[in-house]
Amino acid sequence: MSRRPGPLEVIRDEVVACRACPRLVEWRERVAREKVARFADEEYWGRPVPGFGDPRARVLVLGLAPAAHGGNRTGRIFTGDRSGDFLFAGLHRAGFASQPTSVSRDDGLELTDLYVAAVNRCAPPGNRPTPQERDRCLPFLEREIGALRELRAVVALGGFAWDGALRALSTLGSLVRPRPAFAHGAEVPVGPHHLLGCFHPSQQNTFTGKLTEDMLDAVLQRAHALAIEGT
Q: What is the model's pTM?
């Protein structure tokens, strides 16, 4: 007798099959065909990238979208690029990840008490989804938040993720007024959840020192503390 898929698995399958945004479909598939020299021998994923992690997670880490030659190549968000290298090293230090690297979907990485996703599931040109593309994708995030029954804290990596989290939580019935502004270290209660702001671990931020390991660790430690307090 086959096992009935869980709600996160159902969402994952729907994400991977989505073709709702023609511009993003064209871009992600073109990048997967044309590749770049350093990954010329690899087969790219070239599809929307689902969230992944512990279905009993109390912490959600939310990014903007897959990178063209990161998640769009590997099929796992924040995997195979410098941003992911920085993020997963921090998740490992915080006890959320079984190893400090994430290089492929079958690398043995396991997440504990943590789920990782993005507002947009397709790699966008210039790393800039349109508002319409954001809104078409947000229902996936809303459904994931609903399926994560134990969720207590959402860590938004950057202003786009912060805005997306607020929109999703508002649709789910948790509206905050006045709308809080994004800032690194910002913390806002949103219904039963706490929203935390963290600078995105892009090279632009990590190479310049705008986001340091200590700064990331502090946000992740606070998210862990909030998750524990909520039990």
A: 0.95
